[in-house]
Amino acid sequence: MKKHLLKNIFSVMIFILSGFIITAIASEKEKTFNVSKGDKLAVTVTNGNVTISTWNKDQAYIKVSNIDEDDLNKLKIEQIGNLVVVDFNGQDSDDLLVEVSIPSQFSLDVSSGAGNITTKGNIIGKVGLSTGGGNIKLDDFGDKLSVSTGGGNISAGNIFGEAEISTGGGNISIGNVKSKTEVSTGGGNISIGNIGGNAEVSTAGGIISVGKVSGSAELSTAGGNVNLDGASGQVEVNTAGGNIVVKNISGSIAGNTAGGNIYADLIPPISGYGEFSTAGGDITLTIPSNSKVSIEASVYVGKNIPESEANKFIKSDFESSTVNFVKGNFNKTYLINGGGPTIELNTASGKIKISKK
């Protein structure tokens, strides 16, 4: 009797455990569609990661794995004309993974409520990618790219078209961009290669580093350093407290920092107005010896310092044309090679150095 009872209890336990095992097993679905170059993929998932790869087949292969049994009826994979759709609105599949293989010439519209998005291979087409908080990692892209995440990091290879990229607080790293670029983060660092068009780059507090910009550039951060390797159009650089380093600038430029140092290297032909100001740092300006520019340098040194002492706050490899010392403001003007576009240098308490090259 006792043995029979134990046997029944053991059988019940096996049944219960097997039930747990069965319910714990996740399911997967996969489909393959014949497609043409230039077709579009639309992926919308409430959560989960999405990975998209390119291959040399005129087919779209979709595999969705780690689907909870309760969510199986909430997944739709279908083809409507030239549109391939993956739609999932389940809530219980925490580890959902969507894997897609498509031809490289394909447009994308991908959205995840919270997961990561990854692309592998060069994708040529209009692309929109968004996630509520995951990371986005991309290879090269052609045409137009629009990417956003609520707070994750974004990295991308070269972009052969326009780019609009934003994150609520992560870092952004991009290769070269062929055309107009708009990049922003709520607080991370930004690194971009060369930009073939206009650039608008901003962060609420990180470091900005940009290569050469063919058009105009507007770079701003609430507190980090800003580095720009070159620009031929109009440039505006602002930081609330970091340093500014700009090189190979031939167009007009305005650089402002609340307390950092400024280093500016200008190249001919210097064709536009320049203004650099800092509330407390030093300013170093380097220009070619054959430049035709007018420079106005100003430092506030206080009323109690004699002119002989104030003179050490502005140093230059060029001879000054005029010197003024009024109400604590020490000013020097330089008309280099007869003068030309005006460059203003202003610091509230730092020093100014003007060097020739």
Count of beta strands? 36
| Coarse structural class | mainly beta
What share of the residues does DSSP label as strand, in percent? over 45%
SS summary, helix count: 2
Shape: elongated
Rg to the nearest angstrom? 30 Å
Proportion in helices: under 10%
The chain-level mean pLDDT equals 91
Largest sheet: 17 strands, mixed
Poorly predicted ranges: 1-24
The rounded distance between the terminal residues' Cα atoms is 103 Å
Q: Which terms summarize this structure?
A:
357 residues, 36 strands, elongated
Describe it.
With 357 residues, the protein is mainly β. Helices cover 8% and strands 51% of the residues. The protein has helices spanning 2-24, 307-310, and strands at residues 27-34, 40-45, 49-54, 59-67, 75-80, 83-88, 97-102, 107-112, 117-120, 123-124, 127-131, 136-137, 141-142, 145-149, 154-156, 159-160, 163-167, 172-174, 181-185, 190-192, 199-203, 208-213, 217-221, 226-231, 235-239, 244-249, 253-257, 262-266, 274-278, 283-287, 293-300, 314-316, 322-326, 329-336, 342-347, 352-356. The chain has a 17-stranded mixed beta sheet, with no helix packed on it. A hairpin with a 2-residue loop joins strand 5 and strand 6 (83-88). The longest helix is centred in the N-terminal third of the chain and has 23 residues, at 2-24. The protein is elongated and about 85 Å long. The protein starts with a helix and ends with a strand. Residues 1-24 have low confidence and may be disordered.
